[in-house]
Amino acid sequence: MTAISDQGWWLNGVLTYSRHGELTSMILPELFPMLSPDGNKPKAEKSLDAEAIVQFPNGDLVVAFERNHRLWSYSNILSPARRFPTNPILSTLPYNRGIEALVMLDAGRLLAISESGPKDSSLNGWILEGMQATPFTYLSDGYFRPSDAVSFDDGRILVLERGYTENRGVSARLMTLDVTSVEPDDSLQPSQFMELGMPLPLDNFEGVAFRRDPTGAKFIYLMSDDNYS
């Protein structure tokens, strides 16, 4: 398993399972600094805020950062970053409201969803292909916002959404999004897949992954952010 931290670290480890296929633990955890193109860890805190990760078929890892908005690619978790070419519009996002979800589509295209937009219920998203960025609007209810996403079934995207207010506390849900045909400036309405809560644990979920086992059974993995508490 490979994950990222919003303080500029890679987390690498091995997931272990019971004989029934149930996740039991992570062993051999290791932390490595995310290196900039010059081979050093960035010193400015605003350059460390990694929020989303996707792996290309050739093994390259592409990471979206916010505050200092950019995409960087890595050959592996020990290698220096390379600047990933993308449309300059991404650098214009609000300071702490950048890309939260990044998903590999077909033929090297990426889907990116930010947590900002013209309204709380209309968030900015793009289909990225080289320097081209096809904009779309991700429709929200104004409370929940995407915190991660992953390729799911039949061309759909599984989106993890998180909400928080002092009165309601933390909320989370899983949504599905059909992106089989996206035209410029489309408004995309996700469908609810699952609201998270009792009897399932509820936390500050910021990561989601999906896999099938050899029998075809589907597994969804969630990762929470404890904000170093």
Descriptors for this entry?
mainly beta; single chain; 5-stranded mixed β-sheet; 18 strands; 0% helix; 229 residues
Mean pLDDT: 93
Q: In which order are the strands of the major sheet placed?
A: 8-9-10-11-15
Count of DSSP E strands?
A: 18
For the sheet with most strands, the description reads: 5 strands, mixed
Parts with pLDDT < 50 across at least 5 consecutive residues? none
What is the helix fraction of residues, given as a range? under 10%
Structural class: mainly beta
Distance between the termini: 22 Å
Order of secondary-structure elements: EEEEEEEEEEEEEEEEEE
Q: Supply the number of structural domains.
A: 2
**Tertiary shape:** globular
- Report the portion of residues in β strands: over 45%
How many separate helices?
Answer: 0
Radius of gyration: 17 Å
What assembly state would you assign to the polypeptide chains in this entry? single chain
Structural overview:
- This protein is mainly β and about 230 residues long.
- It has two domains: about 1-85, no CATH class; about 85-229, no CATH class.
- It has no helices and 18 strands.
- The chain has strands at about 1-5, 10-15, 25-35, 50-55, 60-65, 70-75, 80-85, 100-105, 110-115, 120-130, 130-140, 145-150, 155-165, 170-180, 185-190, 190-195, 205-210, 220-225.
- It has a five-stranded mixed β-sheet, with no helix packed on it. Strands 4-5-6-7 form a four-stranded antiparallel β-sheet, with no helix packed on it. The protein has a four-stranded antiparallel β-sheet with strand order 12-13-14-16, with no helix packed on it.
- Strand 17 (about 205-210) and strand 18 form a beta hairpin.
- The two termini are about 20 Å apart.
- The mean pLDDT is about 95.
